[in-house]
Amino acid sequence: MFREGIPLPLVLQGALEALQVAIFVALIFAVPVVGVWLTGGWGNSSIESALRLSGQVWLKAHGVPLDISTVAADGVTEISGVMTLTPLLFPIIPFLFAWRAGRRIARASYADQLWQGIAGALVAYGFFGFITGFAVRTADVRPHIWASILMPMIILGIGVVIGTRREAGSWSRLIGVDLSERIAQSSQASRWAGSYVAAITKSAFVAFMGLVASAALVLAIALFMHWADGSNVYQQLRPGLVGGIVVTLAQLAMIPNLVVWTMAWISGAGFTLGVGSHLSPFETTVGPLPAIPFLTALPTGSLDAAWLFILLPVLAGFAAGWWFMREGENHFDDWLDRKIQMRWLSFSLSTLFLGVAVGVGAGLLTAFAAFISGGSAGIGRLSELGPHMWLVAAWVAGEVAIGVIAGYLVSPYLERDPVLED
């Protein structure tokens, strides 16, 4: 019995929901591309070429790599490369539609039936990606077929699962298992260990989000300070009304990438902006760059005091250590206190372990962010863009660990017990 939705088998309903997502997202990307074509922005290309470009943008919005080839300036040599860079704002669009589809699937089924709707949605979306990957192939751009199937399925799957969980209200209802009952049946030691690991994980997330917020603030200030320079680049490009809108939307789509690159910069690890170019608080080596307005915000001039920016990850770790102290789940310290008679030693070891654990967690989150934010723009110097994921992870892990230890030690003195009135 269905509470809502059309009276169809769940597999078919999931497939229809996924096809709606695919079509809506395709239209969103097709409108600006076709708009530029209508204003003559793509030269003498046909409407078929504009539609193929729309499909390529659809695939790129799902992180699909594109093989790109072109002819060199001599008119004979063929140059090829792989475009792996994905503007991170693009995948948010299919994710939001998939989140909505997941909620609709959840309304139409019981908890033990959800897999049917999700499976139908994944198969249909993967098939749409497969067809798109073949349909938009040209002599110059060739999508990876397996990636055209799998990457859209991953984006849709994440959105659908989160959407179904949102509608179900809890993961327990989503998977049909009462986790509270399972936890209640476990031993006290297991529950303490689970609480400690959960607190560590949440603290690492607090540190990571603090780093993201710091990077976003630094980026916003840099863009504001170089607003006039960016406006001059717009005037030099002369893109026209529709072209200017497309250029602006493309830059907005890159904002999440720029935030991650700024994270890498303030950590001290820095990032690469083309072959032979590297930017960090300690050095700036930049070669020729394309005329893109947001590139005017790159740090230039004297960087003598730029090393102070590495204090921002330490402050993020400090906030995470303070949060952990307020959470009150340091069961590892309680365990060491029973095993080691010298309190100064047990406390030192537990605090050191806390800093390392939270730092490693924040470093892993940063590594993932660095991995998805960078890549190659295809051919030429811009075949290397973004931070080195493990290098920035190591820097962030060390800085956050120092901050966590300091925050955990200092935070008790920053707390104030509430005064009880008579």
UniProtKB/TrEMBL annotation:
UniProt cross-references to InterPro entries, sorted A to Z: DUF6350 (IPR045931)
Source superkingdom: Bacteria
Keyword Transmembrane helix: yes
Keyword Transmembrane applies: yes
Sorted UniProt keywords: Membrane, Transmembrane, Transmembrane helix
TM spans (from-to): 21-43, 79-102, 114-139, 145-164, 205-227, 233-252, 305-324, 344-372, 392-410
A Pfam family the protein falls into: DUF6350
Protein name: Uncharacterized protein
Source species: Neomicrococcus aestuarii
Biological classification of the source: Bacteria, Bacillati, Actinomycetota, Actinomycetes, Micrococcales
